[in-house]
Amino acid sequence: LITQAKGVAGIIACVGDRIDGEVMDASGGSLKAICNAIVGYDNVDIKAATERGIYVTNTPGVLTETVADLTFGLIMAVSRRIAESDRYIRSGNWRGWGPKQFLGFDVHGKTLGIIGLGRIGVAIARRARGFNMKLLYFDVRRNTDMEKELGLQFTDVENVLKNSDFVSVHVPLIPQTRHLIDKKEFEMMKETAFLINTSRGPVINEKALIQ
Protein backbone atom coordinates (compact mmCIF):
# COMPACT_ATOMS: atom_id res chain seq x y z
CA LEU A 1 0.00 0.00 0.00
CA ILE A 2 2.81 2.41 0.82
CA THR A 3 4.31 1.94 -2.64
CA GLN A 4 0.93 2.20 -4.36
CA ALA A 5 -0.04 5.33 -2.41
CA LYS A 6 2.68 7.52 -3.91
CA GLY A 7 1.18 10.50 -5.71
CA VAL A 8 -2.45 9.35 -5.49
CA ALA A 9 -5.39 11.66 -4.83
CA GLY A 10 -7.67 8.92 -3.54
CA ILE A 11 -7.62 5.41 -2.10
CA ILE A 12 -10.47 2.92 -2.46
CA ALA A 13 -10.07 0.58 0.50
CA CYS A 14 -11.68 -2.60 1.79
CA VAL A 15 -11.75 -4.33 5.16
CA GLY A 16 -8.30 -5.88 4.81
CA ASP A 17 -6.58 -2.61 3.91
CA ARG A 18 -5.04 -0.91 6.95
CA ILE A 19 -4.79 2.80 6.12
CA ASP A 20 -2.66 4.51 8.76
CA GLY A 21 -0.63 7.71 8.88
CA GLU A 22 2.34 6.06 7.19
CA VAL A 23 0.23 5.10 4.18
CA MET A 24 -1.30 8.59 4.04
CA ASP A 25 2.10 10.29 4.16
CA ALA A 26 3.39 8.01 1.41
CA SER A 27 1.21 9.93 -1.04
CA GLY A 28 3.50 12.91 -0.61
CA GLY A 29 0.62 15.17 0.41
CA SER A 30 -1.52 14.47 -2.66
CA LEU A 31 -4.05 12.23 -0.89
CA LYS A 32 -7.45 13.92 -0.56
CA ALA A 33 -9.88 11.08 0.15
CA ILE A 34 -10.01 7.52 1.49
CA CYS A 35 -13.14 5.79 0.23
CA ASN A 36 -14.06 2.61 2.10
CA ALA A 37 -16.05 0.18 -0.05
CA ILE A 38 -17.62 -1.19 3.14
CA VAL A 39 -19.82 0.09 5.97
CA GLY A 40 -17.25 -0.09 8.78
CA TYR A 41 -14.17 2.12 8.84
CA ASP A 42 -12.11 0.60 11.65
CA ASN A 43 -9.38 -0.13 9.09
CA VAL A 44 -8.69 3.61 8.71
CA ASP A 45 -6.88 5.75 11.26
CA ILE A 46 -9.53 8.48 11.47
CA LYS A 47 -7.45 10.67 13.78
CA ALA A 48 -4.51 10.61 11.37
CA ALA A 49 -6.80 11.40 8.43
CA THR A 50 -8.40 14.30 10.28
CA GLU A 51 -5.02 15.76 11.18
CA ARG A 52 -4.04 15.68 7.50
CA GLY A 53 -7.32 17.08 6.20
CA ILE A 54 -8.16 13.86 4.34
CA TYR A 55 -11.80 12.92 3.82
CA VAL A 56 -12.91 9.40 4.81
CA THR A 57 -16.12 7.93 3.38
CA ASN A 58 -17.97 4.62 3.68
CA THR A 59 -20.93 2.92 1.99
CA PRO A 60 -23.77 2.42 4.49
CA GLY A 61 -26.92 0.74 3.21
CA VAL A 62 -25.38 -0.85 0.12
CA LEU A 63 -25.21 -4.39 1.54
CA THR A 64 -27.95 -4.25 4.18
CA GLU A 65 -30.25 -6.83 2.61
CA THR A 66 -27.33 -8.95 1.40
CA VAL A 67 -25.83 -9.28 4.88
CA ALA A 68 -29.27 -9.94 6.33
CA ASP A 69 -29.77 -12.76 3.81
CA LEU A 70 -26.39 -14.23 4.74
CA THR A 71 -27.10 -13.95 8.45
CA PHE A 72 -30.43 -15.71 8.22
CA GLY A 73 -28.86 -18.30 5.95
CA LEU A 74 -26.32 -19.00 8.70
CA ILE A 75 -29.11 -19.30 11.27
CA MET A 76 -30.81 -21.90 9.08
CA ALA A 77 -27.54 -23.69 8.33
CA VAL A 78 -26.40 -24.16 11.93
CA SER A 79 -29.82 -25.08 13.28
CA ARG A 80 -30.67 -27.58 10.53
CA ARG A 81 -27.05 -28.83 10.27
CA ILE A 82 -27.03 -28.19 6.53
CA ALA A 83 -23.28 -27.78 5.98
CA GLU A 84 -22.50 -30.68 8.31
CA SER A 85 -24.84 -33.09 6.52
CA ASP A 86 -23.60 -31.90 3.11
CA ARG A 87 -20.00 -32.73 4.09
CA TYR A 88 -21.14 -36.10 5.41
CA ILE A 89 -22.79 -37.06 2.12
CA ARG A 90 -19.87 -35.80 0.02
CA SER A 91 -17.46 -37.86 2.13
CA GLY A 92 -19.21 -41.04 0.99
CA ASN A 93 -20.29 -42.04 4.51
CA TRP A 94 -24.04 -41.84 3.97
CA ARG A 95 -25.72 -45.26 3.96
CA GLY A 96 -29.36 -44.26 4.17
CA TRP A 97 -31.89 -42.24 6.14
CA GLY A 98 -32.29 -42.49 9.91
CA PRO A 99 -34.99 -40.86 12.08
CA LYS A 100 -32.46 -38.95 14.21
CA GLN A 101 -29.77 -38.42 11.62
CA PHE A 102 -28.71 -34.74 11.52
CA LEU A 103 -31.98 -33.87 13.21
CA GLY A 104 -30.97 -30.34 14.18
CA PHE A 105 -33.24 -27.75 15.77
CA ASP A 106 -36.33 -25.87 14.67
CA VAL A 107 -36.00 -22.17 13.91
CA HIS A 108 -39.67 -21.25 13.90
CA GLY A 109 -41.02 -20.15 17.26
CA LYS A 110 -37.56 -19.76 18.79
CA THR A 111 -36.15 -16.58 20.35
CA LEU A 112 -33.76 -14.44 18.33
CA GLY A 113 -31.64 -11.89 20.17
CA ILE A 114 -30.25 -9.03 18.10
CA ILE A 115 -27.35 -6.98 19.45
CA GLY A 116 -27.19 -3.81 17.39
CA LEU A 117 -30.47 -2.75 15.78
CA GLY A 118 -29.18 -0.71 12.86
CA ARG A 119 -30.17 -1.25 9.24
CA ILE A 120 -28.99 -4.86 9.18
CA GLY A 121 -30.47 -5.68 12.58
CA VAL A 122 -33.87 -4.42 11.43
CA ALA A 123 -33.60 -6.40 8.19
CA ILE A 124 -32.86 -9.55 10.22
CA ALA A 125 -35.90 -8.90 12.42
CA ARG A 126 -38.13 -8.62 9.34
CA ARG A 127 -36.96 -12.03 8.14
CA ALA A 128 -37.38 -13.58 11.58
CA ARG A 129 -41.02 -12.52 11.73
CA GLY A 130 -41.71 -14.92 8.88
CA PHE A 131 -40.55 -17.72 11.17
CA ASN A 132 -42.75 -16.55 14.04
CA MET A 133 -39.71 -15.91 16.21
CA LYS A 134 -39.76 -13.97 19.46
CA LEU A 135 -37.50 -10.95 19.00
CA LEU A 136 -35.29 -9.44 21.71
CA TYR A 137 -32.81 -6.68 21.03
CA PHE A 138 -30.29 -4.34 22.57
CA ASP A 139 -28.96 -1.15 21.05
CA VAL A 140 -27.47 2.00 22.52
CA ARG A 141 -30.52 3.78 21.09
CA ARG A 142 -33.97 2.36 21.62
CA ASN A 143 -36.13 2.12 18.48
CA THR A 144 -39.77 2.30 19.56
CA ASP A 145 -40.99 2.56 15.95
CA MET A 146 -39.49 -0.83 15.09
CA GLU A 147 -40.75 -2.27 18.37
CA LYS A 148 -44.30 -1.42 17.31
CA GLU A 149 -43.87 -2.51 13.70
CA LEU A 150 -41.96 -5.76 14.23
CA GLY A 151 -42.87 -6.77 17.78
CA LEU A 152 -39.32 -6.32 19.05
CA GLN A 153 -38.69 -6.28 22.80
CA PHE A 154 -35.98 -3.93 24.07
CA THR A 155 -33.79 -5.22 26.89
CA ASP A 156 -30.16 -5.21 28.05
CA VAL A 157 -27.36 -7.37 26.66
CA GLU A 158 -27.50 -9.75 29.61
CA ASN A 159 -31.16 -10.60 29.03
CA VAL A 160 -30.60 -10.95 25.29
CA LEU A 161 -27.85 -13.48 25.94
CA LYS A 162 -29.66 -15.40 28.68
CA ASN A 163 -32.97 -15.79 26.87
CA SER A 164 -32.10 -16.21 23.19
CA ASP A 165 -31.83 -19.41 21.19
CA PHE A 166 -29.96 -17.47 18.51
CA VAL A 167 -27.85 -14.36 19.14
CA SER A 168 -27.03 -12.24 16.10
CA VAL A 169 -24.42 -9.50 16.48
CA HIS A 170 -24.49 -6.36 14.31
CA VAL A 171 -22.29 -3.66 15.84
CA PRO A 172 -19.40 -1.58 14.51
CA LEU A 173 -15.91 -2.33 15.77
CA ILE A 174 -15.01 0.51 18.12
CA PRO A 175 -13.10 0.41 21.43
CA GLN A 176 -16.36 -0.09 23.35
CA THR A 177 -17.38 -3.14 21.28
CA ARG A 178 -14.04 -4.95 21.09
CA HIS A 179 -14.58 -8.29 22.86
CA LEU A 180 -18.18 -7.28 23.54
CA ILE A 181 -18.86 -11.02 23.72
CA ASP A 182 -16.28 -12.42 26.15
CA LYS A 183 -16.05 -15.27 28.66
CA LYS A 184 -18.66 -13.76 30.98
CA GLU A 185 -21.10 -13.27 28.10
CA PHE A 186 -20.64 -16.82 26.81
CA GLU A 187 -21.41 -18.14 30.28
CA MET A 188 -24.72 -16.25 30.24
CA MET A 189 -25.90 -17.97 27.07
CA LYS A 190 -27.94 -21.15 26.90
CA GLU A 191 -25.83 -24.25 26.28
CA THR A 192 -27.94 -24.90 23.18
CA ALA A 193 -27.74 -21.34 21.82
CA PHE A 194 -26.10 -20.34 18.55
CA LEU A 195 -24.01 -17.19 18.10
CA ILE A 196 -24.00 -15.56 14.66
CA ASN A 197 -21.49 -12.75 14.12
CA THR A 198 -21.60 -10.93 10.79
CA SER A 199 -19.98 -7.80 12.19
CA ARG A 200 -16.21 -7.54 12.77
CA GLY A 201 -14.36 -10.56 14.15
CA PRO A 202 -12.76 -8.83 17.19
CA VAL A 203 -16.24 -8.09 18.58
CA ILE A 204 -15.99 -11.70 19.77
CA ASN A 205 -13.14 -12.88 22.00
CA GLU A 206 -12.24 -15.99 20.01
CA LYS A 207 -10.12 -17.46 22.82
CA ALA A 208 -13.13 -17.32 25.13
CA LEU A 209 -15.27 -18.83 22.37
CA ILE A 210 -12.92 -21.79 22.00
CA GLN A 211 -12.89 -22.37 25.75
From TrEMBL:
InterPro entries recorded: D-isomer_2-hydroxyacid_DH, D-isomer_DH_CS, D-isomer_DH_CS1, D-isomer_DH_NAD-bd, NAD(P)-bd_dom_sf
Statement: the UniProt record of this protein carries the keyword Oxidoreductase: yes
Swiss-Prot/TrEMBL keywords: Oxidoreductase
Domain D-isomer specific 2-hydroxyacid dehydrogenase NAD-binding positions: 72-211
GO cellular component: cytosol
PROSITE patterns, alphabetized: D_2_HYDROXYACID_DH_1, D_2_HYDROXYACID_DH_2, D_2_HYDROXYACID_DH_3
Protein name: D-isomer specific 2-hydroxyacid dehydrogenase NAD-binding domain-containing protein
Record organism: marine sediment metagenome
